[in-house]
Amino acid sequence: MQNTPASTTPKVKLNKAPGKNPNKKSRKWKSLKYSYPLLLMFFPVFVYYLVFRYIPLIGAFIISIKKYQPALGLIGSKWVGFEYFQQFLNSVFFWRLIRNTLAINFFQLLLGFTAPIILALLLNELGSSKFKRLVQSVTYLPNFISSVVVVGIVVVFLSPTTGLVNSVISRLGMEKVNFLTEPSYFWLIYTFMVIWQTTGYNAIIYLASLTGISPELYEASNIDGAGRWKQLWHITLPGISPTIVILLLIRLGNLLEVGYESIILLYNPSVYSTADVISTYVYRRGILNGDYSFASAVGFFQSVIALILIIAANKLAKKYTDTSLW
């Protein structure tokens, strides 16, 4: 009996039309199905940002290109285009506001951003857990104190007559200084006030990141003869570097934003030359003088610059490190 020879006809591979892969669609639906609890948790956050962030931003842009009058409403107000943007850019206060805002943010970035990292590293090195919890609680509590109270404490401490700082200065034989009316001191006063209030709270993120470093790495380094300093540089800091990069990117996106509440409570006309920032200027023009369109234009300008800064910082982080926001 002869065997039938196998067909030598070559098999033709049919190429599927691009973009019509059913397996890809099914995988997407499966991933959405499994991610349903996470998406459900994210939904309130999405609604919050949509209602309280993005929709007001659109409204602010419309107000900024109109001469908004509450009596006429948003639709009835007159269109003026980019007139208020030009007013702000050509204002005599523009460069002063930019300089003060960037200077305060520079000091907060240099001192305020590094202070929580240093505090977290020092707490991580403490052997006594009780003392560690005590220090953490003491440094954490100022975050819950109202800004009004914090500014009041600063004013009392720096009082030219009864303040503790000036009392020490006079005991040392030097002349008392009215710090709150001297423009040259304002940037540092505000920076150290914010550091005292927020360092303990911000250190929690780094402490949580430190707990994620494997203890086996420290044990192996001990066997190799590495001391605390080498462990800090080669294990601890690289271990929390992704957290540092992410928080730094967020901080860089807010370079043109300064908390105006504390500054308004702390400053006075004699220190406007160094204390007046974009947010306080907007408060005076928009809220006190009722110039809503101008204030909206400046606020929208800040948002656009912040977006550009955070995109640029994220690209640099992605290029030079393995961590980025997206």
Automatic annotation (TrEMBL):
Main location: membrane
Gene3D superfamilies: MetI-like
Ranges of biased composition (kind: Polar residues): 1-10
Location of the protein in the cell: Cell membrane
Transport in keyword set: yes
Keyword Membrane: yes
Membrane protein topology class: Multi-pass membrane protein
Pfam families per record: BPD_transp_1 (PF00528)
Transmembrane segments: 34-51, 102-123, 144-165, 185-211, 232-252, 292-313
GO (cellular component) term, any one: plasma membrane
Record-annotated ABC transmembrane type-1 domain positions: 98-313
GO biological process: transmembrane transport
Region (Disordered): 1-26
Alphabetical UniProt keywords: Cell membrane, Membrane, Transmembrane, Transmembrane helix, Transport
Family, per entry: Belongs to the binding-protein-dependent transport system permease family.
Designated name of the protein: Putative aldouronate transport system permease protein
